[in-house]
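Quick start: what a row looks like.
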Amino acid sequence: MSREAVLKVAINAPLSRLFDYLPPSGVSTPTLQPGCRLLVPFGRRTQTAMLLEISDRSELPPAKLRRAIRMLDTEPLLGPAELWLIRFASDYYHHPVGEVVAAALPALLRQGRPLQVPPQVLFVTPEGAAEDLAELQRKAPRQAELLALLQAEGSVSFEELDRRLPGWKRLRKAFLEKGWVEPGGPHQSFATRKKEIGAHKEAGAEPLQRQEGPPLNEDQAAALHAISAKEGFRVGVLDGVTGSGKTEVYLRLISDALGQSRQALVLVPEIGLTPQFVARLRDRLGVEPVLFHSSLGEPERLSAWRAAKGGAARLIVGTRSAVFLPLPSPGIIVVDEEHDSSFKQQEGLRYSARDLAVLRGRELRIPVVLGSATPSLETLQRCRDGLYERLRLPLRAGKAQPPLLRLVDLNRHQPADGLSQPVVEGTGKHLAEGGQVLVFLNRRGFAPTLICQGCGVMAECGRCDARMTVHASSARLMCHHCGAVRALDTQCRECAGPVRPLGHGTERLEEALQNHFPEERVLRIDSDSTRRKGSLDRALAMATSGEGRILVGTQMLSKGHHFPRLTLVVVIDADQGLYSTDFRGTERLAQGLVQVAGRAGREQRQGEVMIQTAFSSHPFWSELLQGGYDAVAESALAEREQAGWPPFSRLALLRAAAIRREDAQAFLAAARKRADALNPGTVRILGPVSAPMERRAGRYRAQLLFQSRDRQPLHRLLRTLRAELEASASARKLRWSIDVDPGELF
């Protein structure tokens, strides 16, 4: 009697292992393939599992192996390329493989729903909606009754049709032949279905009208040739100043891939911030981009995932999770604004979508393009090492000139409500000359906190080591770390004395600017003012048209937008990164300033940038103003090399968060003791230490830092340490995680 196959499956559980099962009853081994899902018993419940391996042996005795309940897929949901990426991400980021599978799949597939949903809803098509009911009533009253119902409601479930129109299925064939109806899945609304049908038809075989682009300049043509001249994998770093035409190079490369019947994947930091970019792709390429991001409803995410897997989605634009999408005919991957910290996931599986995109391009043997006006230091060092090719676009496209930068010394010009006198005068001058002004402050709300004028007590969050932010428009105090909210205090809770807002946020700037320029429309764009669906698109349209002549906003306005009339950018609080406790503080300050400064003067008129600072003599400013981002990057790389920080070393953090401070500290102390015993002597271990904001959302946080010049000894240590931590009883009392290549140390 031959031994049964052993199925090694990944289950969404916080354990770094595969689980062994016997095949479902009646399922033969040849029908089992890695990449298929199964329903399995797990503890006292059932769970969706992903088959990763088929073996002839198990560490468990045959009598203890449980049998899978049933197969959920007849064909692999994930192919070899996707399974490789999942296994790599699990191994590199030291994260349970089942949770990596969960991160790579839409929620409905994780829940065991079928990839192809059997039709259970009948939708009226545009042809059916336009059909004349009066004429049909005379010829075929039963058909008219069914069509009238569909025209009135747009879509009706099969169950509802059975109840209201018994025998309707006899009419279905005729309706389908006439093109009056289209069946769909049970989770689709009528609006969603119309959007899906239109988008995926256009993404497939029905191209839109294409617009011709401008001729490439010499630098753009050289970059295009460098990337497209060779077959196979390579990484091109498109290092272009803001307004230099990086998108135009993307468009040519994507067009070439589409022309070869291949798919293009474009990763962007935040999908809501790039409507202009998506519209430009659509207009220039004649293809409707399929979007994939967290703001979509789950049926829409499944629809986009299905279109990518089936190849109907020729052009996909998505945020970081889109890096896991299946691509049957990959042609190119583009990572726009590659330096952006949004590409690093901060919860759960802490992966870098940019780094996985490069690894995926290597495995798929296709080119990868990393674009930025301010490339990350890690990317610049890889260019130095010859692993990536740096392609410079040093000039703005057309006749646009780079903006003029100047500092406003706050020691000489004391601000009122955040605005110094030179800024107020400069704003008035640009407005009088027909320009548009952007006032940038990466701090939403009215003020950072509320202070008592008598005893000096500030409004503190009860769950975090942080102050609560004043939101004057809603008369609330809010913690931006845990989301706690309470009514705005009218007097001090300690001494009943008078209170006042301390500091300034975008709400306060909006009010101050409206007072200075009452005849102008001040348009605030931040995550508070754009919460409602469609509000961001409307605000950006007003900003682009020039209807809002004074823009106030956070980093939402610093990325990827083109405002033709914008001539002045004002940076209110530029000092936040100068004395940061994070070694990346200077790099991120320079990136943020250069990005927002790049919004100014992108058309015929030269732009101006005014930067308010209380530390105008700091060496950072002379580097930035005289040598631009390149000078800051070179200086920062030299400092990092001397100090042994990335990209000249590898980092990992072991984080812990517990209700009791002593639990987090004890867990990390035990982990440190075990790590010291495992350490080959080449890994530096620091801590445990409390996080600078020790208490957040009611939990005390602490961490261990691992640092190594070489990657391999660090990963060997982490691999063994994780397995031991998972088996420890103390690990079940708190939340803990390993963060490889952390974006933030604190």
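That is the whole record. The mean pLDDT is 89. DSSP finds 22 helices and 31 strands in the chain.
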